[in-house]
Amino acid sequence: MDETKAENAAAAQQKTVLVGVTGCVAAYKACELVRALQKAGMRVKVVMTEHATHFIDPLQFRALTREPVGLGLFDNPSDPIHHISLASEADVFVIAPCTANVAAKLAWGIADDLLTTTALATTAPIVIAPAMNVHMYENPATQRNLRELKARGMTIVEADAGYLACGDVGRGRLADPEAIAQAVIAAANPKRDLAGKRVLVTAGPTREPIDPVRFITNHSSGKMGYAVARAAVARGAQVTLVSGPVSLEAPAQAQVVPVETAAQMAEAVKARLAESDIVVCAAAVADARPAAPADHKLKKGRDDDALSRIDLERTEDILAYVGAHATPGQVVVGFAAETDNVVENARGKLERKKADLIVANRVGGGHTFGKDDDEVTFVTAAGAEAHPLQSKDAVADELFDAVAALGAQR
Ligand code: CTP
User: Fold this and answer.
1) Number of domains into which the chain is organized
2) How large a percentage of the chain has pLDDT more than 90?
């Protein structure tokens, strides 16, 4: 597959969320929702009602999403049926904040603007996060409409109670954007087989100090480990991400433990091993570190000896430790980056490190680091299964399919 095709395939794997914003003081909180969804790896598009534009400028959403913002039924001349294309593009449609008026229109099937017409036209799951004055919220008409929408299969993220913009106190405040994002992620991912499970993931490179300003590291971008964390969150797991230094955003729902060195990563993993159901070692841990890092900056001239010869010592193999100490029921997954004999070497690692699954990929020879896609082979005791080039998010999702299959075989 050439690069453009691979990029298209990666984009196709990414979920598209349509965020509908209606006319409410809480409209500004939709910005936080957009960011939370983007952090979860989703592509976000926004559609606004005319009233919503009085509270927040569409430009704000255009800048955040880098996508055109849907406003009017006829505002996109290049798209003959705007609401139908938006409706079919969405994997999930979330309306947040949703006013009493829009909830009523949805309940009665009224479609008199782009947002409500799209809601009627989409077959994607719909998530509604109402926000309004407490008396409007408690009004039997609103409550009946929300019940009706729920009965039709929509997810209702109930409003919170508290101090409202109008000065009243009570239920009606828009739910926390993180809670709304969670509901969207759940709606976008019908697979929730990791609910209640604890998943520990290592990701990224490590840095092994030579002196206070220099270190040994590698090319790892951390993208695979972060995709694993995202997939686990999407499937309902409680995720801890032990991460070396990377420039990626972690899913908001994961607990991130930042580390630098292999020793710190090993310590963080050991401390959490007992409580984990699944451990995925995706980090590119340095195999060796300077045996005696200098406590001062090594200077040319004065420290020429130390600068021309750095003694190294092996670091601890974290995956091997996890494999050796895993208790029955815990699942251990490792990665293998190989330049040759990919399956054979991965099988060796599976046995030596006592892993349940090794995800093997080829490195070198044009297979460079930092890409968004990967061509991998899953190696287990049962055999090897080659997967085509696909996005790292898709690899991560299939990794948890394979973990589920391992559990079923036991
Ligand atoms: N790994 C680890 N701790 C280390 C080294 C590696 O946890 N100190 C894990 C990686 O996270 C990965 C797997 O081991 O899951 C394979 O790492 P890789 O570097 O491909 O293999 P090595 O064990 O280093 O073996 P070799 O040098 O033979 O390739």
Assistant:
1) 2
2) 78
Lookup: tokens for 95: 């309306």
246 and 343 share a domain?
Answer: yes
Indicate the SS3 state at residue 182: helix
Based on the number of CB atoms within 10 Å of its own CB, is 170 exposed (0-12), middle (13-18) or buried (19 or more)? middle
Pocket test for ligand 1, best of 208, 270, 314, 335 (most atoms within 8 A of CB): 335
Q: Are residues 142 and 30 in the same domain?
A: yes
Last residue of a domain, one of 128, 159, 188: 188
Helix H or strand E encompassing 398: helix 392-409
3-state helix, strand and coil shares in percent for the chain, rounded to the nearest 5 = 40, 25, 35
pLDDT digits (tens, 9 = 90+) for 85-123: 889 999 999 999 999 999 999 999 999 999 999 999 999
Q: Are 181 and 307 in the same domain?
A: no
98 is catalytic: no
Q: Which of 170, 188, 206 is the last residue of a domain?
A: 188
Among residues 24, 31, 98, 166, the one annotated as catalytic is 166
Distance 298 CA to ligand 1 centre (A): 30
Closest by CA to 189, choosing from 253, 130, 269, 111, is 253
Domain extent at residue 64: 16-188
Clarify whether residues 290 and 258 are in a common domain. yes
306-328 pLDDT, tens digit per residue, is 889 999 999 999 999 999 999 99
Task: Return the H-helix or E-strand segment holding 100.
Answer: helix 100-108
Q: What's the per-residue H, E or C state across 261-302? A: CHHHHHHHHHHHHCCCCEEEECCECCCEEECCCCCCCCCCCC
Per-residue confidence (pLDDT) for residue 209, from 0 to 100: 98
Amino acid identity for residue 207 in this structure? R
Q: Within a domain: residue 405?
A: yes
Shared-domain flag, residues 235 and 318: yes
Inside any domain, residue 221: yes
Measured from the CA of 286, which atom of ligand 1 is nearest? 8
Ligand 1 atom at minimum distance from 316 CA: 8
